[in-house]
Design goal:
Blueprint: H1 9-18, E1 24-25, H2 28-33, E2 50-52, H3 57-70, E3 74-77, E4 94-97, E5 104-108, E6 113-116, H4 122-129, E7 134-135, H5 148-154, H6 161-164, E8 171-178, E9 183-187, H7 199-203, E10 211-219, E11 221-222, E12 226-234, H8 237-250, E13 257-262, H9 263-273, E14 284-292, H10 295-311, E15 314-319, H11 323-334, H12 336-343, E16 348-349, E17 352-353, H13 359-373, E18 379-382, E19 387-392, H14 400-420, H15 436-442, H16 445-458
Parallel strand pairs: 2-4, 3-4
Antiparallel strand pairs: 1-2, 5-6, 6-10, 7-11, 8-9, 8-10, 12-14, 12-15, 13-14, 13-18, 16-19, 17-19, 18-19
Helix pairs in contact: 1-3, 13-14
Bound molecules: flavin-adenine dinucleotide.
Flavin-adenine dinucleotide (FAD) binds near residues 147, 151, 153, 158 and 337.
């Protein structure tokens, strides 16, 4: 039996008094389109009862108030590029999609901020800022597709977090509609603020379970004038992963990115892109970038890092000679998730985060499990901040059901290793539905109790993205 009452014709009629007819959608095809995200569809999908496209905060507030009165679940949806089932309307109800709240509201050059609606595609923010010599330093690999609201709700990380940190670091102001339909304005164009509890931070990364983000003010960074990028190939995985902390500690340089790509991931992505970066003898490749104000300095730094790599077992180094080569290197890295998904739509793209010194201890366990279960688990990710995307590819010989049974065993094993090494099961994709049971089993009970108490206080009727992160008792 459903935990929630059905959405009645009367509620639909009332929604149509807030939003015009075309933005209250009950068409089966369109509902199906928002029933899943990028987690395996066969496991994580649900068709909502209605899909709405608000164009203002006021409309969002009216929708939420109505839903709260009738206890109808609400799932906020950005671009649906999430990898944890976060945007799946698990208990049906209303999906609020932000495609039509996608305006860039203000670039404030004097205060170094940009204010945006949640539905703007992340990359469009930086395209608009380029001529001002400014940028938003968040860099999820999905930036051409995902929306800033989704980035804030998942506290998205990405390829440049080692130097610049993750999305939440830059969100200085936030407008949020609470579960009871109040409009909260938190922070502002302020780079410091300890005026009471930092409620803004509470909503960041809360996966749409505590409030609906309707506007954000983002702190900007000067656009680096120079960058140097290279690929470094290693015959041994251990040489590549041991080098990550070495680069940071020995040279005293903080690269913008240290991305790891293992042999299988590199092979697949180079084949898919018809790219020449695959080296059959290399178990691992690092993409390393430094940026700064001066090209001569970044060139010198990349050479220092290249020499260190060569002293530590690198078999080949390619420094990008120009911007197109640099972009080819990044495109190769950015395309891995999509490429692996094409190989295996039922894949499980994982997101473990480890202390960086623990990466060398983690990688042999991946190999051990691959050998033990005869399964391919390419691993790549943001090695510079310890965030690795081990990806479990479905064995072609297995049915979906057999695969999901094996997947559960592998995840249990991997997560146990991660836990023992002092890591966590998600660095940037979030818990969603996909990792809920593992999270609740592994979380510190006291921490979980506080999280549940916060949820109950902010969302007393449990209507905001229910069934995500944890269940309520
Ligand atoms: C190829 C590929 C590469 C990726 N690379 C990265 C990466 O480098 N780093 C990274 O962090 N992630 C990455 N991701 C995952 C994904 O892109 C991010 O999680 C992204 O932040 C999700 O944004 P979205 O707009 O697609 O949100 P959705 O998937 O639509 O939603 C994600 C979550 O946010 C909630 N949400 C969305 N909008 C709002 C709102 N306005 N208010 C409240 N809650 C909201 C949803 O309910 C859901 O829980 C990648 C995904 C793909 C497919």
């Amino acid at each position: 039996m459903s935990l929630y009452p059905p959405l009645t014709q009367e509620i639909l009629r009332e929604l149509r008094t807030y939003l015009d007819e075309s933005r209250v959608v009950t068409n089966a095809k369109e509902l199906e389109n928002v029933s899943f995200d990028q987690a395996a569809k066969s496991l994580y999908s649900q068709i909502p009862e209605v899909l709405v496209y608000p164009i203002s905060t006021q409309e969002v507030a009216s929708i939420v108030k109505l839903a709260n009165v009738h206890r109808i679940p609400i799932t906020a949806r950005g671009a649906g590029s999430g990898l944890a089932g976060g945007a799946v309307p698990l208990h049906k109800g209303i999906v609020i999609a932000f495609d039509k709240m996608n305006r860039l509201l203000e670039i404030d050059k004097n205060n170094l901020t940009v204010t945006v609606e949640p539905g703007i595609i992340t990359n469009k923010i930086n395209e608009a800022l380029e001529s001002y010599g400014l940028y938003f330093a968040g860099y999820p690999m999905s930036l051409e597709r995902c929306m800033i609201g989704g980035n804030i709700a998942t506290n998205a990380g990405g390829g440049k977090a080692i130097k610049y940190g993750v999305t939440g670091r830059y969100i200085v102001g936030l407008e949020v509609v609470t579960a009871t339909g109040e409009i909260l304005t938190l922070g502002g164009k302020l780079f410091k603020n300890v005026t009471g509890y930092d409620l803004k931070q509470l909503f960041i990364g809360s996966e749409g379970t505590l409030g609906i983000i309707t506007q954000a003010t983002i702190q900007l960074t000067p656009l680096p004038k120079a960058a140097s990028t290279m690929l470094v190939w290693f015959s041994q995985m251990k040489d590549a992963v041991q080098l990550v902390p070495e680069i940071l500690t020995t040279l005293g340089i903080t690269p913008t990115a240290i991305e790891l790509i293992d042999q299988t991931a590199m092979k697949y992505v180079c084949e898919a892109l018809n790219e020449s970066f695959y080296r059959p003898l290399a178990q691992a490749t690092l993409l390393i970038e430094v940026d700064g104000a001066n090209q001569a300095v970044t060139n010198q730094q990349i050479q220092q890092i290249a020499s260190l790599c060569e002293r530590h077992g690198a078999i080949d180094v390619l420094v990008a000679a120009d911007a197109p080569t640099r972009e080819r290197m990044w495109k190769t890295r950015r395309s891995i998730a999509e490429t692996l998904k094409q190989h295996s739509p039922e894949m499980s793209l994982e997101d473990m985060v480890l202390p960086i010194h623990a990466i060398p201890d983690y990688m042999p366990h991946v190999k051990r499990l691959e050998d033990m279960y005869e399964v391919s688990m390419p691993t790549y990710g943001h090695a510079g901040d310890g965030n690795l995307h081990t990806t479990l590819l479905k064995k072609a010989s297995l049915t979906d059901a057999e695969w999901h049974a094996l997947e559960a065993i592998l995840l249990e094993e991997l997560y146990t290793v991660v836990h023992q090494l002092g890591g966590k099961i998600s660095g940037e994709h979030g818990i969603g539905i996909k990792r809920k049971s593992y999270f609740t089993a592994m979380a510190d009970p006291a921490e979980l109790t506080i999280m549940q108490a916060i949820k109950k206080t902010l969302d007393p009727n449990n209507i905001l993205n229910p069934g995500k992160i944890f269940d309520l008792n």
